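Bumping with the actual sequence this time:
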Amino acid sequence: MYPDGAAATHGSVGTPLRWASVTKVATAVAVLVAVEEGTVSLDDPAGPPGSTLRHLLAHASGLPFEGDSPIAAPGTRRIYSNAGIEAAAEHVAKAAGMAFADYFQGVWGFALQGSPAHGIRLPLTTLLVVARELLRPERIGAETLAEAVTVQFPGLDGVLPGIRRFALNDWGLGPELRNAKHPHWTGTTNSARTFGHFGGAGGFLWIDPDAELALAALTDLDFDQWSLEAWPRLSDAVLLEHRAGPPT
């Protein structure tokens, strides 16, 4: 997909499929809308003692993958956490005085089913709405998006689930940041500024600001070794065709 909304698609793009953790990116945008509206602040205390909303979005609150008992002090480790994203959504819900699912629908115009960390089951056409927002934001300001894709709590190590531990496991306010990570689930030719998310249901979304391009995929095959082989190949092929330009 390009910033103007033009997209090339393949397969059953209207078939509802699980987004799994790609849901987190859409949830993060909804939280950032609440920040811009003044409903919440990134520096609000939220989650375990000493944690803020910023910590929760950046997987730096100390909460584990699941559960509300922290396993590290806030800001000391990058611990990928469904619980942290759910706590961020709950913080917005309490401040807004409504269910987070209702707030989410008001932002996006489509439904959040289940957990704000992994609950969406909708078609690729809907995921492209999220891709378009991250290429050319309209629901949030450009400055907010720029902060969201800036490293939060630099220098933290941690595990990128299903891949490996990184001494610098950089993360923004919701999106995972490629930066110097290698190997990575995006293509070998993606720029270091690439950001996005993948999910346990075999889907992903990345945005490469240098190429001004987004790539999204949803599947009915759970994440496994195939993903780490197929996703980079697909990404490289798309970027190669993009850089070659239209045929003459």
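The tokens above came from a reply further down the thread. Residues 17-243 form a domain with the Beta-lactamase fold (CATH 3.40.710.10).
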